[in-house]
Amino acid sequence: MFKRLHEEIDVVFERDPAVRSRVEVVLCYPGFHAVHIYRLAHWLWERRLRLLGRFLSHLGRIFTGIEIHPGARIGERFFIDHGMGVVIGETAEIGDDVTLYHDVTLGGIAPSIDSSSQVDQKRHPTLCDGVIVGSGAQILGPITVGANARIGANAVVVKDVPAGVTVVGIPARIAGGREATPHPRFAAYGTPTPDLPDPVAKSIDGLLDHVGTLTARIEELERRIEGKDSMATPEPLNKGETTSGKKPPAC
To answer: Do residues 114 and 95 lie in contact, with contact meaning Cβ atoms separated by under 8 Å?
Structure first.
């Protein structure tokens, strides 16, 4: 227990440059408090003391503003920065070294209409080791976010995310390429570079370029057609002249 406590304090020092002392972490970090309240609530939940576990997690929500269902499964060195508004559902699974920021939701999507069959079904996402989720992101349904993936701020993720990629937007799309290393450096809020490309803007730019190319081609074709018409049309004859250039005989 003391080893885990020491590790989770060290995690705060690694991922939050604002921290100044271990005492500050213990007294002033709601994410730290919420995780340890969850550990106790989960211990009760696993021993079939479900109501007591839920009540303890409810007290943790009141105290920290972070809602973690005691049925969720969370690995080692889990860190919630700032924390207000975080929601982690019952069947969510979180690996080791995962970081969440404020207003993140790991929400459930019911796989069937029959409410009686939903109790033991997987409804919430699975986050593999090393995932970073930016503030305001919504990860919904029984999907999997691969190891070391990064979820940009305010992204809405409804499909599986491959390992080592960054996804942004609504719905979330892959931005940039895969990470070259299995354990990339920590990136606050899930944004590794300030000039991270927007996949939606990139698609729109591509469409605009294509429309511009088509417009130029159409204008060129119109000029060619007009040129051919002007060459094929004969000049009008003067009054009283024939095609041979002679005047018709008088009647």
So the answer is: no
Known catalytic residue: 102?
yes
In angstroms, the CA 220 to CA 158 distance is 45
- pTM, 2 dp: 0.70
Q: Which of 102, 124, 183, 210 is catalytic?
A: 102
One-letter amino acid of 227: G
Query: For 59-185, where are the E strands, in sequence order?
Result: 67-68, 73-74, 79-80, 87-88, 93-94, 99-100, 105-107, 126-127, 132-133, 138-140, 144-145, 150-151, 156-157, 166-168, 173-175
Point out which residues pair with 74 in neighbouring strands.
Answer: 94
Q: Write down the pLDDT at residue 249.
A: 58
DSSP state letters, 60-91: HHHHHS-EE-TT-EE-SS-EESS-TT-EE-TT
Taking only the tens place, the pLDDT of each residue in 78-98 is 999 988 999 999 999 999 999
Locate 41 and state its tokens: 């609530």
- The distance of Cα 6 from the centroid of its chain, to the nearest Å, equals 31
| Segment (H or E) for 246 | none
